[in-house]
Amino acid sequence: MAQKNVLKYVVLGLLSHGDLTGYDIKKLFEGELGDFWYSNHSQIYPELKKMEDSGLIASHADTVGQKMTKTYYKILPQGEQELSAWLSEPLNALPPTRDEFSMKLYLLNDARNPLVKELFAQEIARHEEKRQYLESRWEALFAWEAEQAKHYGHSLILRQAINREKQRLQWLREEQAKLPK
Q1: Mean pLDDT by 10 residues, the chain (181 residues)
Q2: Following DSSP, what letter does each residue of 13-63 receive, concatenated?
Q3: In degrees, to the nearest 5, what angle opens at C-alpha 124 toward C-alphas 121 and 129?
Q4: 85-89 long-range CB contacts below 8 Å, 24 or more apart?
Q5: Are 73 and 22 spatial neighbours (Cβ–Cβ below 8 Å)?
């Protein structure tokens, strides 16, 4: 079965919350969305053009300041219908992961190899940094229950990401402790 263009639905979902520029969407992918979804600049603008050409969104220019013009995108009723239909569809099969740590660990057959200890140390450092970042985002965005309720899905995803990092760190530290001295 062909993979759906999920980027289109992500953009429609973002626009369902309010008008955004292409730059606004790019910044969301670099920030909040980047914790669980990736898209780069070269994908976003062509997708906006295709969506506008197909009648899912419309653009309008707005002058900011005295000279600068920004193009804002707005979801149209057809786009709202497509977004609603996609949200109701069952989830696709899980895609394969590309985890460099796991691949390197898989290829090292001897627990006494010094690279194993180094790999664990690096992976713990990476996940500790990620956990700290996610927890700082939680404090900045959802310290108040009213904000959690207002952005329910986002708060759930962020809490899940924090828990994922904590679980990964627990497993890494347990396995690291079992390594030969």
Answers
A1: 75 95 91 80 91 96 85 96 95 84 94 96 97 94 90 92 96 97 86
A2: HHHTTS-EEHHHHHHHHHTTGGGT----HHHHHHHHHHHHHTTSEEEEEEE
A3: 125
A4: 86/4, 86/9, 86/12, 87/9, 87/13
A5: yes
